[in-house]
Amino acid sequence: MSNFSFLKSEDGVLEILGHNPERFNPTAELINNILRGESELSISERELIFAYVSACNSCSFCMGAHQEIAQEFGLALGVLDELVNSGEHKSIDAKLKPCLALAKKVAKESSRVVKEDVSAIINAGWQEETAHDVVSIAALATFYNLLVNAHGVSGTPDYFKMCAKMFGAKGGYIPPA
Predict the structure, then answer these.
(1) pLDDT of res. 61
(2) Residue 22 burial (CB count, 10 A)
(3) Does some domain include residue 133?
């Protein structure tokens, strides 16, 4: 159930942001830059990291929406569920595993991130900038997770599919003018 009179429980982040566009429109540019800007990480990998952090933060809305978006960009079905439900990383490329470990650490205990966490990403074959991207994705996801959870919206499978169409291969996160 929604915690605010202007929302229904089946609503999502779009209704939260739309309630006060002057406040939230600038975040569209930020999320577009982090999830669609230049990065060694593919868009699918960035969306997976966002969804994984959302699962770590118990935000079912953001997890569901970003899982659908990641799948729109080629993430295989079941990968996120495997990560979240079993802790297994069998379907995950070994190179991505330290990125997911850092993302989880940022979400759950950011004050304990150390240089070795960044080094693990570099040692896996990424540039240091990729570790910075992972931290940025995890921080952004955590912001949205807190916003959505505190507003008490949960979305629906149809809402998540709509997000995948809006923010998927034919779209970005900046609303049309």
Answers:
(1) 95
(2) 6
(3) yes
- Evaluate whether residue 174 is within a structural domain: no
Q: Is residue 1 part of a domain?
A: no
Cβ neighbours, 10 Å, residue 111: 6
* Exposure string for 79-99, b = 16+ CB within 10 A, e = fewer: bbeebeeeeeeeebeeebebb
Query: What's the whole-model pTM score?
Result: 0.94
For 78, how many CA atoms within 13 A lie in the half-sphere containing its CB? 4
176 within some domain = no
Domain containing 117 — which CATH number?
1.20.1290.10
Residue 47, both tokens: 């969306």
Closest to 26 measured CA to CA, from 140, 160, 168:
140
C-alpha span between 84 and 103 (Å, rounded): 13
Q: How many domains does the chain have?
A: 1
Could you tell me the residue range of the domain that residue 124 belongs to?
13-19+26-167
Stretch among 41-45, 62-66, 138-142, 152-156 having the lowest mean pLDDT: 152-156
